[in-house]
Structure prediction request, 481 residues.
Amino acid sequence: MHAAMRRLGTLLFLLFLLFGLGLPAGGRAAEAPAARVVALRLDGVIGPATADFVSRGLARARSENAGLVVIEMDTPGGLDASMRVIIREILASPIPIATYVSPGGARAASAGTYILYASHIAAMAPATNLGAATPVAIGAPGGGKPPAKDNDPATTRPGKDGDSADKAAAPKAPRGDAMMAKIENDAAAYLRSLAQLRGRDADFAERAVREAASLSADEALKGGVIDVVASDLKDLLARIDGRTVKLDSGNVVQLATADAAVERIAPDWRNRILSILSNPQLALVLMMIGIYGLFFEFTSPGFGVPGVAGLICLLVALYAFQLLPINWTGVALIAIGATLMLAEAFLPSFGALGVGGIVAFVVGGLFLMDTEAPGFGIPLPFIIGLALVSAALILAVGSLAARTRKQTVVSGREALVNSVGTVTVVSGDGSWAQVQGESWRVTAPGPLAPGDRVRVVGISGLTLHVERIVPPHSAIERSSS
Prediction:
C-alpha cells in the first residue's frame, strides 16, 4: 500500500515537472519575443503619406511576429485626419508600441503629442519637447484666443496652496467663433481620453490643447506625461526591458528588449510619392498645368502633347486633392479664375475678365486648404505669384495668337490670292496659267495671251480670277502714243 502511494506520488511529481518544463511560458505566456524590434522613423509633417507608412509598418511587424514597434518621431504636427488614423492603428495593435521623440533637439508638437499619449510606452530623448497641441483651422479669428488676465476669475481657479495656477478646466472666455470652440473642445477631450487610457497626466493634456503648453523631456517625466527618458534607441530598449504592458485587447505583455535585434523600416517609393503629392502647392501647380494643357489642346487640336500632359497633370492633381483636407469651393474658384483669365486673351473685355480671373484665383487659393497645419498651408505670396504668372502666360499666348491672325496666309487655297503666275495656254475652251507650280484655269476682265504675267485676285471653285500685270515700259509707251 505504501509502495503504491509512493509510486503515485512519484508519478504526480513527474507530471508536475513535465508540465512545468513543457510550458515554460506558462507564467510568461504573453511575453513578447526578444528576437525582433521594428523601428519606424517619422520625420516632418504628419500627413496621408505618414499614416500609410505607419499602417504598412505595423502590418509588417505583425507578419514578422515582432515583439515591439518603436516609432521614432520628430514632427511639428500635421493633419488631424492622418493623426487619428495612426492612433487607431496604435490602439488596435496586438504588438506593444513605444513612441520615442528623438534625437536630441527633436519635438513632438501638435499631432505628435497625441500620438505620444496614445502609445503604450512614451519616451523622449534629452533636450526634446512635446506639447503645443492647440488645433488651428483656417479662418480662426486672430489666430487664437486672447490672453487671460492675471486676476480674471473666469480663467483661474485656486490651486492646492490657494494660488490661482490651475487653468486646465477653467471656463473659456467667448471667442466669437463657435466652430473653433467646438474643434478645441473636441481636441481637448480626445487628448484627455488618451491620457486617461494610458494613465498619464490629463491636466497637461488639457493645457497642451487649450493653452498650447509645452514640456521638456525632464519636465514631462517628472509630471507623469512620459514613461522614460533615454539617450538613444539602445538605451531605450535597455530601460524598458522587463516592463509589463497591457494592450487594449486586454492581453498583458512583458517586454524582453535588452538584447533584441532592431529592424529599421524606411519609407518605400510609394510613400515617397505620396509624400510629394501631399504637398498642396504642388497639387495646385499640377491643376493649373492640367487646365492650360487641355485649353491649348482644344484651341489647337492635333498637337497632342499639351492635351495628354494636361490630362495626366489634372488627374494627378485631383488625386492629390482627395488626399488633403481640401475645400472644393476653393478648387471651383481657382478653375473659374483660370477660365476667366483664358477668356481675357480672346474676348474684348478691356481687362474685366482678366482682373476678375485673378481675384477669383487668389480667393480660391486662400480657401483651398481647410487647415493651416504646419507644411500644409499655401502662402499668400505663392498664390499671388502663381496668379500673376498665369495671367502673364495667358496674355503672352493671346498676343501671339492675335499677331498670327494678322499675318498673311502662306498655305492652302487662301495663299493663292495675290500670287503671280504666267499664262501658258489660251484657246476657245479657256485660258490656263502656271501659278505656284500648278496649272490652273483662269479668267480675266480682258484678253490674255500666252506669256502674260497675271496676278490672282480671287478664287471660284477650281478657277482663278486674275488680272494682267502691265510691265512698266508698256505703260510708258501707251502714255507717249
Remarks:
- Residues 380-406 form the longest helix (27 residues).
- The longest strand covers residues 36-43.
- Residues 279-406 form one domain.
